[in-house]
């Protein structure tokens, strides 16, 4: 989890910098600036780790070495511990293998070509064959969706790597590193520029079962990591209690990248979600009564790490009793009942079953500028008649106009729909399933890279894809019923506003407006301060982050304790509350579905809070009206984990699954400083050097002071 405290350290250091200039260490700027950028963070899985780390709790100090070209790299002969400053183009598996194991203590990589890329750092078969998630994608994992992938994201680097913000920001470090050129290592005279990289994420050998099961010296459980996850959202157009077949439309909410700070996921994450929500909105014009089929919309969280959003959903969908040991009937802002063992926010999933799902459509990466044509990837193991109907509903939709066609890939891309077809786990191999995508045989190079930015997207491409999906769902669900409902139209203004919001500011008016009725209801229900608001990311990253804190539903009992399993001895009463306050992105997603899919009463009543709505199963939704409750959160964490009573403790029930976790950490960061070494003769340095040393010591103490949690 990213900590803003690095910025504070930078500020402290800069105080000294101004004084140091007077010391004239060199003609340049003898400062010790903090390197702003995105760090590669370490994650654990069931048998090991990926990402980057340092084993030195106090941070690693090493000489900066400028590696500007492949020739520099080929001729590199390190003689002391070093941090390589290099363009990201040189970050390849072959080059990484060449780095001196003993002396390479960190990398500072910088972009050289603005905001576009011809490659990314993910695997050739993302979440497929040869990756940690490969076992979860047994049928389609051998297809190389990402041919320009450099396959570095599944590696474990025994040194920190930071992606510097930009080429401009990197210039000063390149300059300092090149000043070290030719400065001998053993010199007792002259300044050498070093970097300080503090990235301690636990000992060298670590995995998720170990860090989740960690106990402290008193023998008490004290996990040093949390599961990657969060809250998915899903909603229903129609009525799950009817026997009508179900069509499910889905999209992933999250993305992945080498650094979770630089995981914008505008195309890989946001575009599909925006299209899905805009489709749900467009179907508002179709009355529930004219549907021959029920439509479920699902936005799955944390798909990039073990497909956990879709897999948890399916695990609970297919399990006897929906994996719930105790249903508690009580009115909360989430509905009329929930599960007490383990605590979940809703039991709505009990109305759905896999056999009711007649077809599944996913929407994926539909926003790239210049996307005029869309491809439909279909399940090759499904019955052809079902697939034909599904494909026709899109290809022959009136907005398609020849721009939508069946893909030639013959495979299915990684995403939530893979879980629905994986019969080795919870899915149905012959499910009638298709993905509407902006790519045909391979993903764009920006996939899972820091350059998957909104600036390379075109909202009109998303609008078009959403329009095709909306017409398809309309055809499939309304079909030849005698309905006179008119075909849905996607709101292009809504699409572009939503895209800007999700990719830049989760506190934007659109997201706030949709979320307000739910947030106000929670503030009232949990008696929170009136200004409480779900958490946001700045800058926005669509990395899902971890399933913990307010993103993990708990029952708060009358003694104030929050538990993940309500003890049998506890009779639920109104002095207990159900606590779940997902982040602003997740809160918005569910709130939006609730507003788009719920049925308004014939005389709509206005409301401020859900409790203002009369009648059962009503929810107060945007724009402050009561509607039939239609949308729910669903936990996204690995089905290989089970909750224990104490919130935040998990036991491993299946260690053969990836079980992604992120270690707890607080202060991490990189800064650069001039090391005067034993420059005794350099009396002239005087106070400048003293200040630098002081600054360095202060910074170390500052870093230590804020290390809230002692790590492993
Ligand atoms: C790249 O994108 C970032 C964020 O959108 C922006 O701040 C920056 O100016 C862009 N850089 C270039 C070279 O286009
Ligand atoms: C992937 O596996 C399927 C089924 O085993 C096979 O038909 C297909 O040719 C394989 N594709 C590749 C690219 O290896
Ligand atoms: C949908 O409409 C039917 C009647 O056509 C009604 O029975 C049902 O409650 C409605 N469902 C919702 C979720 O409003
Ligand atoms: C799997 O899907 C096929 C095609 O939709 C369907 O005929 C079959 O009944 C489904 N199997 C199960 C177990 O739901
Ligand atoms: C898009 O599809 C149309 C109609 O099939 C075709 O004429 C056109 O060349 C395609 N455009 C691209 C960029 O592939
Ligand atoms: C509706 O009925 C017409 C005429 O029977 C048929 O041609 C068409 O394919 C049907 N459409 C759907 C979606 O079933
Ligand atoms: C389209 O969306 C915008 C932005 O949310 C909204 O102001 C407008 O009323 C919507 N238009 C229609 C026709 O619903
Ligand atoms: C893209 O993101 C930038 C900030 O990163 C924001 O200022 C801009 O409005 C966004 N543009 C679009 C088209 O979403």
From TrEMBL:
Name of the protein this chain belongs to: Nicastrin
Residues of the signal peptide: 1-22
Ranges of residues in domain Nicastrin small lobe: 40-180
Alphabetical list of Pfam families matching this protein: Ncstrn_small (PF18266), Nicastrin (PF05450)
BP term (GO), one: protein processing
Gene3D superfamilies referenced in this protein's UniProt entry, alphabetically: Zn peptidases
InterPro entries found in the cross-reference section: Ncstrn_small (IPR041084), Nicastrin (IPR008710)
Family per record: Belongs to the nicastrin family.
Gene Ontology annotations for the cellular component aspect, listed alphabetically: plasma membrane
Entry keyword set: Glycoprotein, Membrane, Notch signaling pathway, Signal, Transmembrane, Transmembrane helix
Membrane topology, record value: Single-pass type I membrane protein
Transmembrane segments: 680-699
Domain of life, per lineage: Eukaryota
Keyword Transferase: no
Protein localization: Membrane
């Amino acid at each position: 989890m990213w900590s803003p405290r690095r910025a504070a350290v930078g500020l402290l250091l800069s105080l000294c910098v101004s004084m140091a200039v007077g010391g004239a260490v060199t003609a340049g700027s003898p400062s010790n600036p903090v390197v702003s950028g995105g760090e590669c963070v370490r994650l654990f899985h069931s048998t090991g780790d990926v990402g980057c780390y340092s084993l030195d709790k106090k941070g690693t100090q090493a000489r900066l070495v400028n590696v500007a070209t492949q020739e520099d790299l080929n001729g590199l002969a390190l003689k002391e511990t070093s941090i390589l400053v290099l363009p990201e183009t040189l970050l390849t598996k072959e080059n990484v293998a060449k780095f001196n194991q003993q002396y390479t203590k960190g990398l500072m990589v910088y972009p050289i070509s603005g905001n576009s890329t011809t490659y990314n750092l993910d695997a050739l078969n993302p979440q497929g064959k040869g990756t940690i998630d490969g076992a979860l994608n047994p049928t389609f994992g051998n297809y190389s969706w990402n041919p320009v992938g450099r396959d570095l994201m599944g590696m474990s680097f025994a040194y920190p790597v930071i992606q510097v913000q930009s080429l401009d920001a990197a210039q000063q470090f390149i300059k300092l590193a090149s000043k070290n050129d030719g400065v001998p290592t053993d010199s007792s005279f002259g300044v050498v520029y070093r970097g300080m990289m503090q990235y301690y994420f636990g000992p060298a050998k670590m995995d998720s079962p170990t860090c989740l099961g960690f106990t402290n010296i008193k023998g008490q459980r004290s996990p040093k990591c949390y599961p990657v996850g969060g809250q998915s959202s899903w909603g229903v157009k129609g009525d799950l209690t009817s026997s009508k077949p179900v069509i499910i439309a889905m999209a992933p909410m999250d993305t992945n990248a080498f650094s979770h700070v630089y995981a914008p996921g505008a195309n890989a994450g946001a575009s599909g979600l925006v299209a899905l929500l805009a489709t749900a909105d467009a179907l508002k014009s179709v009355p529930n009564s004219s549907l021959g089929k029920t439509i479920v919309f699902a936005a799955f969280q944390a798909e990039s790490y073990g497909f956990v959003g879709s897999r948890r959903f399916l695990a609970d969908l297919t399990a006897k009793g929906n994996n719930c040991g105790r249903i508690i009937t009580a009115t909360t802002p989430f509905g009329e009942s929930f599960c007490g063992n383990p605590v979940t926010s809703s039991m709505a999933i009990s109305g759905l079953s896999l056999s009711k799902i007649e077809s599944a459509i996913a929407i994926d990466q539909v926003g790239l500028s210049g996307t005029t044509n869309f491809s439909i990837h279909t399940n090759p193991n499904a019955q052809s008649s079902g697939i034909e109907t599904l494909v026709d509903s899109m290809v022959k939709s009136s907005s398609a106009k020849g721009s939508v066609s069946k893909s030639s890939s013959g495979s299915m891309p990684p995403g939530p729909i893979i879980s629905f077809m994986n019969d080795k786990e919870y899915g149905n191999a012959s499910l009638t399933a298709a993905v509407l995508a902006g790519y045909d045989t391979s993903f764009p190079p920006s996939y899972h890279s820091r350059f998957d930015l909104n600036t390379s997207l075109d909202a009109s491409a998303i609008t078009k894809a959403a329009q095709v999906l909306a017409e398809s769902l309309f055809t499939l669900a309304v079909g030849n019923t005698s309905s006179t409902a008119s075909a849905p139209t996607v709101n292009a203004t809504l699409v572009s506003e939503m895209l800007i919001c999700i990719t830049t500011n989760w506190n934007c008016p659109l997201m706030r407006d949709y979320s307000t009725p739910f947030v106000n209801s929670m503030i009232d229900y949990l008696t929170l301060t009136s200004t409480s608001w779900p958490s946001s990311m700045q800058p926005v990253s669509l990395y899902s982050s971890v399933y913990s804190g307010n993103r993990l539903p708990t029952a708060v009992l009358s003694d104030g304790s929050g538990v993940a399993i309500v003890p049998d001895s506890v009779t639920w009463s109104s002095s207990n509350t159900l606590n779940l306050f997902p982040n602003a992105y997740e809160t918005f997603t569910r709130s939006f579905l609730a507003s788009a899919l719920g049925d308004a009463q014939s005389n709509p009543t206005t409301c401020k809070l859900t409790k203002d709505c009369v009648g059962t199963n009503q929810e107060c939704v945007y724009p402050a009206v009561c509607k039939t409750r239609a949308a729910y959160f669903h936990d996204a964490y690995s089905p290989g984990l089970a909750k224990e009573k104490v919130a935040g403790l998990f036991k491993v029930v299946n260690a053969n699954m990836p079980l992604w976790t992120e270690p707890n950490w607080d202060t991490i960061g990189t800064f650069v400083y001039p090391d005067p070494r034993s420059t005794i003769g350099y009396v002239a340095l005087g106070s400048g050097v003293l200040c630098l040393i002081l600054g360095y010591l202060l910074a170390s103490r500052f870093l230590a002071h804020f290390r809230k949690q002692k790590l492993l």
